[in-house]
Each structure stands twice: as C-alpha cells, then as structure tokens.
Amino acid sequence: MSPSFHAQPRFVVKSAIPARQVSEHARLGEAIDDLLFELDLRKGEMTISGLVLVSARRLLADTYRLVSREPHARALPRLAPGPEIAAATLRAALRDTQTALSAFQRDHSEPDSGREDFWLVRESDTRTY
Fold this sequence. Notes:
The chain is mostly helical. It has three helices and two strands, in the order αβαβα.
C-alpha cells in the first residue's frame, strides 16, 4: 500500500523552559526594538558601522543561542563579516530575528499555563531572574 497524501496533522508539542530563558527572551526583544528604533533615526545612512553594528552582531548571536534548539533556528540570518553593512540588510536581519523570538514564545507558551504571562516554565525553575 502506498503512503497516503493525506497524512495525519502534526500537532505542535509545546515544552516548558527555564525561567532564565523567559528573562533572556524579554531582554532580547527589548534590545532589538531599541536597535530598530536607532536605525529608524538613521534613515539617511546607507551603511551601518561602529558600535551599532557591534551591538547588532551581539544581539543576533545571543538570539541564536536562545533559539538554537528550535526548528526555525537555522533560518536566522548571519551578517557578513566586515566593518560595515548595508542598513537595509541589518533591518531585515533584525526583523527576521524578531520573528524567531515570536516563534520561540509561541512554542513555549500556553494560555492555560497558570501564569500571567502564559509562559510554560519548568516547575523546578520558577524563580524570577
């Protein structure tokens, strides 16, 4: 018998995470929003360099470290090495990173979690960081 084209739907398995990852998610989300705001203030600039680029590289690396075990982690952009990068490329990379953080939150939260913020946090790790 040949395999059916109407395969059973895959259900998303949501898993609990340590509380420190919840805190890291919040920190990264705020930092990316701040960096995107900074880039919006520099709309006339075609390239980004210096401290803004260093901050962006660090945020992308930290985000990858947080979501590295997620299925969508491989799709996160990598910035080309060098002293400067096109502003449009950096904006796109940061928006993709925001999407990865949203997917991470979706995969580890549930409205019925019993927590005000809906995160699924491991029982043995419920302290606040």
